[in-house]
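Researcher: Please translate sequence to structure tokens.
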Amino acid sequence: MQRVSERNKSNRCHLSMPYRRGRMNIHQLNNDFMEREGRHPTRPEMFQMTQARTAPDGSVMWSNEQSRQMMDQMNQLMNPTPSKESDATANPPVLTPEEAFRQVFGRDRPGRIRCGGRGQTLRSWYGPSECGSSSNTVYQRLLEEQSQQKSEICQQKSEISQQKSEIERMKKIIEDQERRIAAQSTDIDVRVEAQVEARLAELKTQMLQSMDDRVLELIRMSGSGAPVLPEDETDEEVGDGEDEGTFGEDE
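Model: Translation complete:
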């Protein structure tokens, strides 16, 4: 047992990209990924899980510079960006995760599948007819379909986010219109109130002017020789005359 341990240590010294997960094997990593994401990991994802660790501050710590560069190459093949010198209309081909992994690492050797887990062979991974050619098995097609579905879901989320932003923008426009309408309504009320007050003042002025004209007319009539007596005094004088006439008849 000790000889096996020493042999494993010696073999790990010759690895260009050492394993960074300690005693946790690929099968356990695969199960943890399925519980977390609901699907099998692709080989680029499995490569990153075995070669990198996430620090508490969120940064990714790679086993060495070579592993980081190879992961960058796979990401570039899966998500290509056109260069400034190339034609803007020419889009570089987008490779699937499996195709990008094979292009970076080359063809798998017989007897083992890199980042495929224990028990995987060329026949079980690629199928009995090709044994390592570019065709994929049902398992690989499922991975590609899952990747495509994930892209569609991300696109739908982006569209929903855009729709939410548009709804928020329309809400702001409606609120601004409501505020303007309320301000205009207040302004109209103020103007109407001012017009009513002005009309009342005008009517009051007209009434006062009419009363002044009536008083002047009465003054002119009194100055022309016809005294204007109050109604009470006139009635009293008329009553006295009737009494005198009656008294004379009795005599």
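Researcher: Any highlights?
Model: The beta strands are 52-54, 60-62.
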